[in-house]
Specification:
Layout (H helix, E strand, L loop, with lengths): L15 E3 L6 E3 L1 E4 L10 H13 L4 E3 L10 H13 L8 E6 L14 H15 L4 E6 L8 H13 L3 E7 L3 H13 L4 E7 L11 H7 L3 E5 L35 H17 L3 H11 L3 E6 L4 H8 L9 H11 L5
Parallel strand pairs: 3-4, 3-10, 4-5, 5-6, 6-7, 7-8, 8-9, 9-10
Antiparallel strand pairs: 1-2
Helix pairs in contact: 1-2, 3-4, 4-5, 7-10
Length: 334
């Protein structure tokens, strides 16, 4: 490998924001490895995307133990890319992983028990070849495991040196408050809350964002483009080969509804008036929220990642633009 990171990677238009009340800066745009980094994907394309991300100031890479497919392969492939390209730059990266969704067969490969989290982080560290994660998350509240059990596991993970910070993902408000209180009392405050947030998915505005802010916790938004619905991809219907056209996947055909397509068309017109694409405006809209530290974007190519980074060129909105967006979104069934 002859790759050498750009010496000007911090001299570009990337901006950074402190994560909650911590001293940790995160890039406003982070790269997620949920899709396109598994064994079913092109390894050379995955390598090029991570190189491009780092060269353009993206220092935060978001993983989970079950990312692939197959589960675990995204961590393994990221570890190979890291070893071959970035071994000398580990301290310039924030690498996060998570556990809590189904990962291996049997009663201990799923949910949020201490058993699952402790086994999972050891497996994830082995797959990535890392000595520690910068951030390790409880990937979900499973509705069964006491929050106290899960949080004690996160506390011990930090004390064992396996993670520098911990976070929670997709926690309801009641359980999140318990988590924040327990972590704070233990001297291992929750660094970051991660949840789904976009123009089409706004449930976190009903208290989740505010609660994170109350506890000095940062917020990282995933699926800020609603898995492609907030791009021009579906404006003229469902294209062949898109996520919604696949038999398997998280975006179903029935989610591509008429009201969302209609709203996307109108939002696309407004974005054009701002000199942006719909995707750029959708990302900027999420970042405009005062509680949001960073957005996690997924990409299938360097060009797509480059297009997403262009959102940083215009993050400001006029009051008229924000009102126009709200008027459009009022027509969407959330």
């Amino acid at each position: 490998m002859n790759y050498k990171p750009s010496e000007t990677r911090y001299d570009n238009k990337m901006s950074y924001k402190y994560c909650g009340n911590s001293g940790l800066l995160l890039p406003r745009v982070s790269l997620g490895l949920w899709h396109n980094f598994g064994d079913v994907d092109d390894f050379s394309v995955a390598t090029d995307m991570i190189r491009y991300a780092f060269d353009n100031g993206i220092t935060h890479f978001d993983l989970a133990n079950n990312y692939g497919p197959p589960p675990g392969s995204a961590e393994t492939n990221f570890g190979k890319i890291l070893k071959n390209n970035f071994a000398a730059y580990r301290d310039e990266m924030i690498i996060a992983s998570k556990a809590g969704h189904e990962m291996w067969p049997g009663p201990y490969g799923d949910r949020s028990s201490r058993k699952n989290l402790m086994a999972s982080i050891d497996q994830s560290l082995k797959r990535t070849g890392l000595e520690y994660f910068d951030i390790f998350y409880s990937h979900r509240y499973d509705g069964i495991t006491p929050v106290e059990e899960t949080m004690q596991a996160l506390i011990d993970i930090v004390r064992q040196g396996k993670a520098l910070y911990v976070g929670i993902s997709k926690y309801p408000r009641q359980q999140a408050r318990v988590a924040y209180e327990m972590l704070k009392a233990a001297g291992v405050p929750c660094l970051v809350c991660q949840d789904r947030y976009s123009m089409f998915t706004r449930a976190v505005e009903q208290g989740v964002l505010q609660l994170a802010g109350e506890y000095g916790c940062g917020f990282v938004a995933f699926s800020p483009l609603a898995q492609g619905l907030l791009t021009n991809k579906y404006i003229n219907g469902i294209p062949e080969g898109s996520r919604a056209a696949r038999a398997t996947g998280f975006l179903k055909k029935e989610q591509v509804t008429d009201d969302k397509i209609s709203a996307a068309i109108k939002l696309n017109e407004l974005a054009g008036q701002r000199g942006q694409t719909l995707a750029e405006m959708a990302l900027a809209w999420v970042l405009h929220n005062e509680y949001v530290t960073s957005v996690i974007v997924g990409a299938s190519s360097v060009q797509q990642l480059s297009d997403n980074l262009a959102a940083l060129n215009k993050l400001e909105f006029s009051s008229e633009e924000l009102a126009g967006i709200e008027e459009i979104l009022a027509t969407v069934q959330m």
